[in-house]
Each structure stands twice: as C-alpha cells, then as structure tokens.
Amino acid sequence: MKRVQVISDSGSKKDDNRFTYTKLNSPNALDDYDINIIDLNNDYLWRNEDNSNKAINKSNDFRSISKMIKNSKKSQIVVMLPQNVDFRYYYNRVYGSYEYTKPLKDMIPNMTVIIGGLTSSIKKCSIAFENTLTEVGQEEIPAAFYFEDNPFVGKTYSIRSGKMTTVLLDDIYYTTLELSNEKRIVAFLRFIGLLEEKAEIPDWFENIVMFDDQKQKTIIQNSKKQIADLEEQINLSKEVLNSNSKYKSILYTTGDELVDVVKEILSDMLGIDLSGFVDEKKEDFNFELKGKIYIGEVKGVNHNVKRENVSQLDLHVNGYLDDNTDKTQNDIVALLIINHQKNKDPKDREPVNGQQVKLAEKYGSLIVETTMLLELYSDYKSGTITRDAIIELFDQVGLLEYKYHNIEHSVIQNNRAKRENAWLFLVFIGTVFDYDFVILCYNNSKCNV
Fold this sequence. Notes:
Layout: E1 4-7, E2 19-22, E3 35-39, E4 47-48, H1 59-71, E5 76-80, E6 86-92, E7 97-103, H2 108-116, E8 127-136, E9 139-147, E10 153-157, E11 164-169, E12 172-175, H3 182-191, H4 213-248, H5 255-270, E13 285-289, E14 292-300, H6 307-323, E15 332-339, H7 354-363, E16 365-369, H8 370-382, H9 387-394, E17 398-399, H10 416-430, H11 435-443
Keywords: Coiled coil
Coiled coil: 213-240
C-alpha cells in the first residue's frame, strides 16, 4: 500500500498501522509519502485568541505547510475542509474561555481566506453550506459544504442533489467530506483513483499449483541454496583476505601494532608460544628454541636501517648475557626485524646499507626485513619451505637474503661471513687442485664447505 501521512491537530485516530499521523506544527517531509492529507476538520483549529474571526492561532503553521506544498515534487495533496464547527475567538484570560462563537457556515468568506493561507488556490472556489451525503464505495459520507458553480474537475458528488463535494484544483484535491476514520479515507482515496483497488489474496491461494509453478518453485529453492552457499564462501574468503591483510600490514605499521603481528607470524612459523612473554620495555620478544635463545627487536621506521637500530639489539643481547652468565654469544640468535622505509612502496625501497650489514655481522645478529619475513611466511603457509629450514635461515648473521627455491631442509643463503671464509678456503684448495674447477664450483654453490 502507498505511504500516507495525515497532518492534523485532532490527535491520533489510528485504526491500524497503515497511516502516519503528525501534527500541523511538526509534519514530516511531504515527499517522503505518496499521499499527504491535511485535515482541517478540528474544533480546536478554528480558534483565535484575538478579537477577529479572520485568522486562527495556527496561522504560522499554515504558512509553513504552504511552503512545503509549493516545494513538493511528487506527493499527492488532499485538503479536508472542516465541517460546520463553531469558530471561537477573543479569548478571556480571566474566565479562561472565548467570548464569541460563530458557526463556519456564517463566515464562509473568512473561512476561505483562512484556508487560503495554506493553499491559495482555494480562493478560486465558491463554497456554500448544505448538509449532504456522498456515496463513496460502500460508504455514505456526510458533508456540510459543497463547491458551487465551479468550472473545475469534480471528483465526488452528493447522492441525490448532485452537489460537488470534492474538486481537483491546481493538482490539489479539496474535499468537504467528513473523512473521520481510516475506513472512509481509504474508500475515498480509492474512489478518486489515488489508491489502486486490489483484491486481498486469500490464504488458500498459495496451494493452487498450475502451469509450471512447481518447476519454478524448485528453481527458486535451488537458487536460494546456491546463493546461501556462495555467500558462505564469500564470507570465508573475506575472512581469509582480512587475515592476509593483517599479516601484510607489517609493510606499513610500527609500534605495538607491528610487534603483535610479527610475534604472531613467528609463533606460527616456528611453532612457539609467545603469549607468556612479558614486555619489560627491553627486547620485543625472547624465547628458547632447540637450545638457542632468540632475542628480537622489532622496528617500523621511515628511513633505511641505521646504526642505532642494530646497536639497540646488541644492547638487549648484552643485557641478557649479563643476567645469564651461563650463556655465551653462540647460544644467542639475535634478530632485528625491521620495517624500514615503511612510507614507501616495497618495490621502491632502497637496499639495506652495507655498513649496517657489516655491523650486524660484527655483533652476531641478523637483519630481517619485513618484506623478507612475509616471503618466508607465505612460502611456509604454501608448504614451499619447512619450519626446520626457516630455523636454519635465522641462525645466520648479517642480512637475511631469502630466495624461494622449492627446497625444504637445506639453507638457501649462507651469511656473508661464512662466504668469506669459504672463499679463503677455496683459494687455498685451488693452489693444490684445479683452480678453474674450484671457482666454478663455488659460483654455482655446489661445494659444501
């Protein structure tokens, strides 16, 4: 059913929830409704505290609604004129009552002027008093006034006298009918064509199966199941994407947000539990794995790796060794996991400065870029690399230079210090054996030194 707003000061007259009732001083937007009915048939509306019957106390409300009507682009407007109620004016504040009373039938010109403050086109109409009945559907609705000698479009007429009781003028419906309840209003709106007459579907109708009803119902049922399955898959995929985005966030985050995700990645890859780690504002993580103590510093910075970043990790390592005199540097795996140049796209980031790599080698620590950590984690999740291989990769110094080669337990890249030692050893061997073969062997990484 169309949306209908009844603007009235006569209070709620709801028969059901089909209509919205608002007051003259606070109506809702007219174009929020298909039909707006302005009900002027209210005793309290036709009053004026001043000594005049040419205005009402609600004149300001009329002016506001008049502007709303002019600005309405699509709503149908129906104005319900009053019945022959008494107009009361000149309020006596001592006695708390009005001094004068006059029936509206005796002041029709002034009534028309007052309504003209709401909709000016009413002034084109000639209104006369006469009690009539108008048949609207199955209803006989009374009216105290009618429109006489008007060259306008009539919509309803009284039963026997044929007096015009509803007129369409400048796209506004004016009616003198006493539409005192929703039953009458619905009958009236249907009669003038603003509401479509539709038969109510009976309960038994749903059980009538003809043509290809069953086939179409089956298609609908199957399609709904497919949609439900697809929506479930979409939700699962969204959850995975959200999880992936969380891990990828280590490419731009810093602080606790970065530390928490890095610890989650390490916990999964290395099979450890960092939930019990207490952050004492020293290292960002500390755990034991396969006889080694892992001490880690996690940083997110806009610049490249600096000396102080590497040195800070070394301070944590030395602090640990001071507190644990039974441990040595060989027992420590020191990791600087750093999201450097985080304000840049990873592909535009400069390589880690060689001086900081040498400093890490000197301190016996390993610089792990978050870009490299993500590569490791992605390959771990896909089964390309195993946990043991990752543990071996972390047991180096300098800069982690992981390249995925579909291997499992072998270490992919040796650290720079081991390469230098290997090179010296090969040079020595080359003096004894075939030097060219030894060089070829080293360059192809086929020698196991």
